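the two lines:
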Amino acid sequence: MHDAVTQAQTIDHSEPLPRGRRIPEHWWGYVLLAPAVILVLGLILYPVIYSFWISLHAKHAYLPIENFIGLDNYAALLDDQEGFWRGLKLGAIFAVSSVGLQLVVGVSAAMLLNESFIGRTFARGVALFPYMVPMIVVVILMRWIFNDSYGVLKYLLQASGIVDDPIVWFSPDNVMLTLILVSTWTFFPFVVIGTLARLQTIDPELYAAAKVDGAGPLRRFYHVTLPQIRNVLFVIVLLRFMFMFTKFDLIWLFAGAGGLGYYVRTLPIYTYVRTFGELQVGAGAALSVTLFLMLVVFSIFYFTIFRRDEQL
Amino acid sequence: MSLDYRMILARLLVYGAALVLVTLCGFPLVWMVLTSIKPDQEILSAAPTFWTANPHLGAFERLFETTNFPTYFANSLIVAGSATVLTVFIGALAAYGITRFRFRGRELVAGTMLFTYMFAPIMIVVPFYIVMRNLGLVNSHLGLILSYTTFSLPFSMWLLRSFFQSIPIDLEEAAMVDGASRPQAVIRVILPMAFPGLIAVSIFTFIVAWNDYLFARVLIGSDSLKTLPVGIQDLYESTVTDWGMVMAAGVMITLPALVFFIAVQRYLVAGWGAGAVKG
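prediction for all of em together
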């Protein structure tokens, strides 16, 4: 999986072909890149910079109000216990639990799918399913499976005697748990894809040697597998955390838009509510900028902590 | 023998675990299909059945005849299809330009493209909406097509760049020495060799556009322009839930994504390192 990246850095075919034309050769580089660069500059980078600018204003979504207020939007966030701080806490709970579960399930599944057994190709395909299902389908499907009255999960749990009283999955107390379970189901295949690709490159000799030394399955995992997949897990955890911390569509569709929205109002949901519900574009922009800065700070900490760890 | 016994036990464990994994991942989708073809009285039952003796397509009929589903489906096809064609075209031009010409700012462009990956949709959507409104592209398919094209471009360029880099420049030069113009050399030599990359980019873009909810929600207001994710959400929330019909809609939306998924599976692992999977 690293091939593409390393190749990109080492092979360089950039010498222009020996041809004289009316237009100097190197101009063609600009011409060919122009459409892509214009789109990315205009629709990604400009909006990002523009949102810094908007966040310094009291701006309404439709009314022509746009007053410069400096950092007031950010100051307001610090006092916003119900919206900002609570959203941060809920978002951290959601992201940490979900990424933790995705990691456990994903690594276990990858190790299983790395074993040889009849039907492995089929199992590999099915295991990637949940990730490819469109988010809106995940949501309506899980709302049906977790349904309080006719959901198949309720039936299975009761019929098998695991629970006596039905669990009300969509209640203020449980909705976050339900959301974490559903997000694990949808996103763990990402961990499988990355880990499995790496597992396949581990030299079987290493396991054979460990076996000769008398290491059991658990010790083989700690001393052979884990050190080998460590680097790929480092990237996976970082990406998964960033994706889950900024996750909007799943949470919003699953519970955020309805009456239970309050109980899963993480920062992305709150950003959306402020901007498109309360029409406070300035405050919404301040939230999205803050979200971005948090991710930057998080990445820096993450890299420093684990780099240091690596040197020990 | 104790050794044999342990090996059999280990095998059993592997198959047992595989069964659990396949059930966990596959059952919800089987349940969706089953619900969509069950008669109504079997759907709302306290003791659900895991098979139905009387499958029927009533839910699909209701979906197509009493809702705007066909419109949403057509809109999704138009938007995702156009975004895919546009991304492949613009992405291939850019990747060719960046691998075959040396010019100032080349590395900066490549680096910036990766950097844009840092921005989650929710961080862009607020200013993005205002920019689109100023451009007059709110509530139009063109606005959505340009959005999806732009969001897919960084990854597409990155992937195609590595494909183009792996194609020896000598092949092009040989074709040009034989009298082909540069565009002819590109079309006859480069594009066929980069075909797997072009396919991977198409599928990636199609799925991004087909699945997106946030930008479609924010940019589109009219019912006649809605794409599937937004249309289905509104359908689901506006009525007393007709579970059979909602599951039928789920089946209809998943099918195209699944067909593409099966086609792309082998590229998926290869593209993983380049960031093919996001979300």
